[in-house]
Amino acid sequence: MNQAAPADTDADPAASGPILNLNRISLAFGGVTVLDDVSFDIREGEIRAIIGPNGAGKSSMLNVINGFYHPDDGTITYKGETRARMRPDQAARQGIARTFQNIALFRGMSTLDNIMTGRNTMMRRNFLWQALYLGPARREELEHRAHVERVIEFLEIEAIRRVPVGRLPYGLQKRVELGRALAAEPDLLLLDEPMAGMNAEEKEDMCRFVLDVNDEFGTTIALIEHDMGVVMDISDRVVVLDYGRLIADGSPDEVRGNEEVINAYLGVVHD
Amino acid sequence: MLYRETGQFKTSYAADQAIFPIFQDRIFLFALIAFAYLAVPLLASEYMLQAVLIPMMIFSIAALGLNILTGYAGQLSLGTGAFMAMGAYSAYKLTTGFPELNIIVVFVLSGVAAALVGIVFGLPSLRIKGFYLAVATLAAQFFLVWMFNRVPWWYNYHSSGTITAPPREFAGIMLTGPTATAETRYLLVLSFCIVGGLIAKNLVRSRIGRHWMAIRDMDIAAEIIGIRLLPNKLLAFAISSFYCGVAGALLLFSYLGSAETEAFDIFVSFDVLFMIIIGGLGSILGAYLGAAFIWLLPIFLTNAPQLVGLSMPVDLQKHLEVMIFGSLIIVFLIFEPAGLARLWQIGKEKLRRWPFPY
What we know:
A: about 270 residues; alpha/beta; Rossmann fold; about 25% strand; B: ABC transporter involved in vitamin B12 uptake, BtuC; two-stranded antiparallel sheet; 14 helices; globular
């Protein structure tokens, strides 16, 4: 691990250094500006919420962070290293995992296999060993299986281990997707609307998992969420985007009182 | 009542990840393999071995290969026949060029040759998907067959343009050629068939298999969680073509004896594709069941009228056979689109509960 800041997960998140620093990020698709000069950081061990109305550029922001989009302008410093263009699989190898707004699970595969794919970057044996399924390849498979089982236990989805995820209800699919991201043992976990479309109990479960992941594993979390109650309750700091611009950045209370944020959400007559 | 897994507790992940976690399944499989090795060569007639079992098993090897590529990795291919031709012609060239080379090694090397060609024709898969990729693999089908027809080097400049499997022996036993008995050829093909199935199963239950299925189900998500698409797709093409190549070599050496390029034309590609669709896409068992269905059903239909004492003109019988075969496939696909492997699975579920109706 090439961490610049010492990893001290017990410390108050406010006191630790940033794991990720986004400096003046701009992104445009053709003539449409998606992100306009956005700068903020994510500190080691915190829960960082990204909120904003529809089309504010929140998901694009996550896509920039994990290398799926390449910003037109600006720099990204991750673990003290300012990085050049990066492919998503490289980001995954460096400890960035994510979930998606619209579930992006592998529908034909079982819950167990889906979560096992989350560990793909850690498996080393080549296909010739796997063809024999002996010795090192078998040992490796079993080691990772044991780890995946801990994730399954943590998320309380033991009962659906063998079920193809295409047959699972929506709330459970969201949970399996979180499991796939967790299996990668990420340093930075990006959650794109983890609670969208859930009922109250499912939301409470998901909140509990997010908080537990943060507490127990010290994982830094950046999440996009529309449920303001959830955002205000679980996040350490909130960044607000509107039409690709950053309009507020601070603690939940500061953001809640910010006039521009209220205007962005409630609408204001522009003169 | 015999098929119960009650009391079979798994206490390790190794036991849970076994190919056949249920004891009765293992017994059944070992019994089947023992029967195939010991009883079948003694009991079956030469016709049964030569015209039914040997080609059926060879096609099941090709179906395994195509199922890896299409059923698991999701890359539609219509080049199976060409990759089989590549295997057959490579094996022919290798064994005529180096007669002292062990014939088993020749088969494996011809699989490798087909794998290399498969990689080349798999390259477009990075950019194109689905039916468009199928058309690109069609190029392999036509180009390779054309090449084997037009480049006399491939058939050692024989005026007839055919390639003939020369007699080759291993450990004093004649394995190929006209003097090899049907029994030895059957045992040779059976061994390839079993080892091939085991290796395929190991691959698809390992990391590489999960990569393939992830790419099949959602390639963008696969990429984002760190699976690199090009190497995994090309590996699927390579391994798939390897199986097809070995199957092609066996088809020439153990079944046909001598062949021209017609033996590997586009209809072979379609037949193998039908096998995996009928058998079950993304299932190792499905490759075997599909090959058995597609190969055995026409034979059964040919022989059925005689069995019930019915005599009819040959051409009428041939037409009826095609009609019944076609409608059976349609009915079957409507009834169970997930294939015979799924049907087998449902049957096993039912059997576990029998005789209770819940």
